[in-house]
Write a structure and sequence with these properties.
The structure is a homotetramer. Chain A is built from 8 helices and 2 strands, in the order βααβαααααα. By secondary structure, chain A is mostly helical. In chain A, strands 1-2 form a two-stranded antiparallel ribbon. In chain A, α5 runs antiparallel to α7 and α6 packs antiparallel against α8. The two termini of chain A are about 30 Å apart. Chains in contact: A-B, A-C, A-D, B-C, B-D, C-D.
Chain lengths: ~200, ~200, ~200, ~200
């Protein structure tokens, strides 16, 4: 069976961390320094508040993806080719988040912008969920951590992907609804983590 | 209790280093290559001097934040969920430094620009200070290093945060005063470090 | 003989991973947020589809280069000066991929744009292939992995370089043909990997 | 004495690698995708050749700085506060290289542009040289590697700094002369390395 040992995991993780670190830092480029008269700077900063909001939201979303990814890889004892391919697909979705956040920020009234953001979050979340399933099936998870990973591979965990995917049609009702759903995923992830830890230690 | 071992700390640190490395390097994008006739390049470079000043100041500030973060994490023996969340909040403030430095550079006469920069530095500094307190309370610090961390969690160490926060109203007196305060934090951090080392080794 | 031990390899790998992580993330900067009326955003997103295509293709190509590089360095037991120099040349070609992908995306009908992209991929692939040969000749490969590295240093593996180089004249027939060739290299690499693993374990 | 052990060195090195990896990758942003009619793309690419030249030259220069830094830190057994400060100053100069390379590329006939590039290379080189001296004096170098580090701390090694500094006035004779000097430093570093290795192993 084509598997490689835990030592090699380090470099996949380092590359993933690098990509996510760059992606999360690029989010700040979406907040553009205003080009106004000095006297109008106060108003210009107020006008920037939605951009700051989009920044912190995307930062929290990428941060959460990173935390979950971090936890998933800590529980692995090996990896295989499909996991590397899945990880690249995951990263290609993560790297689209700065673009989508910028799109959503500039067109905050347009359902399409929110739908694109929701769709990309949905894809990232789906691949992330599927990676948990794959690592379980392919026997890549350390024996003592199979319970914890199983929580993240469960239908309940798929709920996050479902929320992101549901935000796509909801965006066409009103973009604010879609945004509310994304924010909810940040809040909701906490309880899930607690469940996972309980199962892991039991 | 939901704590994870020191080995896992490596990846949080790697991610943090990655984000701070990108943020510190993005600072250079604020120095724009002038678009002038060749004959006017000399004058254009002189006009860029304040941008270079803002670059070196922000570089030093991010560099200092990195050094303190580095030292704090070296003294940990474990981490928990709240620390990861705090660290993300800290990083989201750090990533705003290239934006604020650019803002301050372009509007160097405007109190608001200096106030935004000071406010963001204040938030980063506050979260940093609170992380020290949290790691002590949650028992995440190695026994032999509790003294050193206590120095950074002390009211004296809060002085840095206070300085950054005080620079916000000071910016409305004159932005130069705010800038003077930021520079003082770079100079002042040295003595504190010395105290910390003495306590640590005693 | 001027060789250095395996521990030192870590930093070359970390630097390489950093460069490739930044390069792969910069690819997203090629997808520009449209500047249109809200009502035209739908059409604008459809117009962006080729940019997304170029993004995913380049992401997959850089991803593949990373996977092969990763595997090559895992099999090393030491490095030497020429390998470091070759690695820098390799990275300088990789860093040109965001530029070439952008060029190809904006001038997708122009043979020259496709030829430049193909040429840069060809150079990266050639240096990568030559690095395998060099590590074998200079005795840098761990004894048990010489077979696996030999597969990547073989004339068959040179086929990838040849495909990229052939895509340069093909671009002048039609750029689509060149693109088809690049896509084929992503699909074809899988079987080669399998051969390599078989040889390695036998 | 305020020194910290080798394990801690890892994170300084990781941060440095991150900064240098981002800086070296940002160099590609200086090559702008031309904005011309498709029919004029060939000529536009020819016009870009000097930009490619500046890209490869700066890539080689940052690459060399990285290799020397890498070697210096491999020979350390500890670090201290001044070394961290020096390293930050070094990095702040390295991060200016993408700016200076862009400046030099756009104003290739202007002595000032070449002088700025040469000056920044000179500062980076000087700090690098001084870091070798500091690590020797402060006893941070592993006993068995003191000979190798001494080579890089010698007046001969200062020659590189001198070459960069001399390129500043030479730029006012003609920028091409300054460029020739920079290229020479890439070629000349090889022999020095050889000397260092010989001393190290003797």
């Amino acid at each position: 069976m084509e598997k490689q040992a835990r030592t090699d995991l380090g470099r996949i993780v380092a590359f993933t961390d690098g990509v996510m670190a760059v992606a999360i830092t690029l989010l700040v480029l979406n907040i553009e320094v205003p080009d106004v008269d000095g006297a109008d700077l106060g108003q210009a900063m107020v006008d920037l508040l939605p951009s700051f909001g989009a920044y912190f939201l995307s930062f929290a979303l990428v941060g959460r993806f990173w935390i979950v990814h971090h936890a998933m890889f800590e529980r692995l004892r090996a990896f295989d080719g499909p996991l590397m391919a899945l990880n690249l697909v995951f990263l290609s979705a993560i790297c689209l988040i700065p673009f989508s956040a910028d799109l959503f920020d500039r067109y905050d009234d347009e359902p399409i912008a929110a739908a694109v953001f929701g769709g990309i979050l949905g894809v990232a979340s789906f691949v992330n969920w599927y990676m948990h399933i794959h690592t379980l099936r392919a026997g890549l998870v350390k024996e003592e951590h199979r319970g914890a990973t199983a929580v993240f591979a469960s239908p309940v965990a798929f709920g996050f992907t479902a929320l992101f995917l549901i935000s796509v049609p909801l965006a066409f009702v009103t973009p604010i609804l879609a945004e509310a759903v994304w924010i909810s995923t940040i809040v909701l992830r906490y309880p899930l983590r607690r469940v996972s830890v309980r199962k892991s230690s039991s």
